[in-house]
């Protein structure tokens, strides 16, 4: 469902071009659940930014299903992301002035032409699934970090994305809560319909996934830089 070919990305920093990613070929099948590990600075977040179309590669193609991101305008990529991709971040990014339910509702309202009654019923169902029905009218500041991440997970999944991307989703949680969140993500994305890519440097979390890849297995920059005798990034 995800195909990457000849992907290259470099950043321009202080007058220098710094190569970050070089991925000749990488395929992810429909319904796969993959953890991508690697040290800080190894290009994990950049890879997710490229796959989600937030950022453009310098070279290469990314296909999600039949859809080639490089052939789309920025507006089309934004629409495609809204309809097909769920994104979960380390720091939740909930709107502080809205309740948990309202944070989910604005994400849902963008995507569905359903009546409000039906939307609220669906939202209640999801809060129940993550064990937070009683907390749905609380503001983010009244919730624990683990609970805030549950709300962010609902927000990412409620519209039924085919591809779910999570960037260090347990990075700011204690280990017990991190375990719960990893478990919940795998459970909620359990169907074959959901493809789940999680980047993390938390090996404990990665071990729970059916497939775990180190970013250096996918990204050849590391090998190339080492071969040239340079510093590995
Ligand atoms: P990771 O998520 O694995 O920690 P990132 O993808 O965030 O790594 O970053 C990879 C490298 O690219 C880092 O060295 C980082 O400093 C650099 N980088 C990331 N984004 C930018 C940017 N917008 N401009 C310049 N350099 C960047
Ligand atoms: Mg990162």
TrEMBL record:
InterPro entries in the record: AAA+_ATPase (IPR003593), ABC_transporter-like_ATP-bd (IPR003439), ABC_transpr_LolD-like (IPR015854), MacB-like_ATP-bd (IPR017911), P-loop_NTPase (IPR027417)
ATP-binding is among the record's keywords: yes
Domain of life: Bacteria
Chain ranges of the ABC transporter domain: 2-233
Keyword ATP-binding: yes
The entry's keywords: ATP-binding, Nucleotide-binding, Transport
UniProt-listed SUPFAM superfamilies: P-loop containing nucleoside triphosphate hydrolases (SSF52540)
A Pfam family of this chain: ABC_tran
PROSITE patterns the UniProt entry points to: ABC_TRANSPORTER_2
Designated name of the protein: ABC transporter ATP-binding protein
